[in-house]
Amino acid sequence: MKDGFIKIACATPDIRVADCVYNSDRIIELIREAADRGVKIICFPELSVTGYTCGDLFLQDRLIREAAGNVARIASETKELDIVSIVGAPILHCGKLYNCALVLVHGEVLGAVPKVNIPNYSEFYEARYFAPGPVERTVTDTPQLHTFIGNDVLFYCKDIPELVFGIEICEDLWVGDSPSVGLAKAGASVIFNLSCSDEIIGKADYRRTLIKAKSGSLACAYAYADAGIGESTQDMVFAGHNIIAENGSVLAESGAFTQGLTAADIDVKKLSYERRRMNTFTAADTLHEAWYSLDITDTRLERRFPQTPFVPESKQALDSRCEEILTMQAAGLMTRLRHIGCKTAVIGLSGGLDSTLALIVTVHAFDMLGLDRSGIIAVTMPCFGTTDRTYTNACKLAAAYGATLEEINIRESVTLHFRDIGHDPESHDVTYENSQARERTQILMDKANQLGGIVVGTGDLSELALGWATYNGDHMSMYAVNASIPKTLVRWLVSYEAERSGGELGGVLLDVLDTPVSPELLPPEKDGTIAQRTEDLVGPYELHDFFLYYMVRFGFSPAKLFRLACQSFEEKYPPETVMKWLKKFIWRFFSQQFKRSCLPDGPKVGSVTLSPRGDWRMPSDASYSIWISELEETERSLSTTGEE
């Protein structure tokens, strides 16, 4: 349960309709299996002790008493396990029968939650047997189960403040005013649903969409445990479609017509952060509380975090995302150009990734406006570090897109500037580098003035996060189309354009992709290749984008970032390498905020952006000591563990 991760599970047991002993034996087996796997909360389907399809047998006193006795037996036979179990059974209370979820932990029946919405349409006729909730919290009069029954209850973990769960049952999810809304607003971070949803064509897709949407709108984890093929197939079939979703994403899902466990590691700290961040997630009146304890152990994570969280994993999703992003970027620039009546855009085209993407976006914007692409002024400005490869690619790109290419060699002007400020040209320090970047920006700005155009910025989100930009150099423009595009995504956007373009243009774009990322501010190697490689200096962009996404989007702590990065990149980077670049990321992210405080306008296209007018507001003088100290403590802990 370290870092907020809790392993939960939905379970579909093999059952026999109306055979409470057999069903309870199978439930106990799955509880034991789940506990061995590190699961802390397990949820079973609706009426799992008896089976859902008992029909008029629910009116039989023998079945009702047998069910209650077996619920008590399940609790007793699993009392030594450190796990919360939620099972379904009919409970007789005050002369009425309720379809209930019963919460069991450490041998105790903690409470019974009745179903609120009783379906009585189409194939469902539950109102023939069951009374609807809500039931005001009171003690149930079932002798074997001395516990409360009620709907206005949340279950709190004494040991983990963020772990609070509520329960609804099957139909409760499908109605407009589902109980989960009130439960989440009152503090539930996890909703468990005990269900017996028969399968018909198209229902699985609808069910999945509904659960994803519910978990997203409530900023919660939603675990849906579905009954399976052991139910009677007299008139219906049941597929055991278990789903665990978290904040709009499915974490785990069972196959159709399968049985057993479906487990996932949910992150209750992330959910807590999300609710704090969203000021529209309003709290409701508190409900009754039921408390339980769990041992604090380190969750054995089965959940995997993708190495490139900004980039979809499937080719189809990636192509769709690339098309959408390019359109959004182009639409933002188009709107700006149209608003100011501008028909000229000036771009510093280096032949590198970022300026290539900016050119692509500008071309799309001009096409949207019906403007002649010759109004795109691509300025290439070779200097001390420019290689033949990037220079040639810049020229080819401009020609292929029909932009106007202008070459302005800045060697002489930068050399003159060195003389003016008394700088030794042989000293290849930050002054040497930044003088070139600022000279280029001055030229672009003045050319834009000269031609009545605007400068389109090329810098990306990853560079902004690291402060890898020259202040008032490439840091500045009149509209920054790449400002919310991380480097890992820039590559895929250019790759998508290359694949879509094909031919000579596609070939040039592929060569740009194959070129090492570099500002080219230092002289090349003797063989003419790039000497200054960005990732050798600041670290791998795939690591930095990973850190950026989870720190800014979900507020992950440094130790948690380190843990997840080590897991995700275990085959690429050893822990000491991850630690080195994470420290570098934290230091640069905090120390370079002053550059982000005065960014030019640019379109937001994703959930992570660092615009001071958009999602990210941070003082330029904030200390990062507590972030670094946590990493140092983690490092010491690793060192101690290694010595042992």
What does this structure look like?
The longest helix is centred in the middle third of the chain and has 26 residues, at 315-340. With 644 residues, the protein is an alpha/beta fold. The protein has two domains: 7-292, Nitrilase/N-carbamoyl-D-aminoacid amidohydrolase (4-Layer Sandwich); 315-641, Rossmann fold, CATH 3.40.50. The protein has helices at residues 20-36, 61-77, 171-174, 179-185, 203-217, 268-277, 315-340, 353-369, 388-401, 411-421, 430-451, 461-466, 487-501, 503-514, 534-538, 541-554, 558-568, 575-591, 593-596, 625-643, and strands spanning 5-12, 41-43, 84-93, 96-105, 108-114, 138-139, 148-149, 153-157, 164-169, 190-195, 221-226, 243-246, 249-253, 260-267, 288-292, 345-348, 376-380, 404-407, 454-457, 479-480. A seven-stranded mixed sheet has the order 13-12-11-10-9-8-15. Strands 5-4-3-2-1-14 form a six-stranded mixed sheet. It has 20 helices and 20 strands.
Which labels suit this protein?
644 residues, alpha/beta, Nitrilase/N-carbamoyl-D-aminoacid amidohydrolase, Rossmann fold, 2 domains, seven-stranded mixed beta sheet, six-stranded mixed beta sheet, 41% helix, elongated
Set down the secondary structure blueprint.
Layout lengths: L4 E8 L7 H17 L4 E3 L17 H17 L6 E10 L2 E10 L2 E7 L23 E2 L8 E2 L3 E5 L6 E6 L1 H4 L4 H7 L4 E6 L7 H15 L3 E6 L16 E4 L2 E5 L6 E8 H10 L10 E5 L22 H26 L4 E4 L4 H17 L6 E5 L7 H14 L2 E4 L3 H11 L8 H22 L2 E4 L3 H6 L12 E2 L6 H15 L1 H12 L19 H5 L2 H14 L3 H11 L6 H17 L1 H4 L28 H19 L1
Parallel strand pairs: 1-2, 2-3, 8-15, 9-10, 10-11, 16-17, 16-19, 17-18, 19-20
Antiparallel strand pairs: 1-14, 3-4, 4-5, 6-7, 8-9, 11-12, 12-13
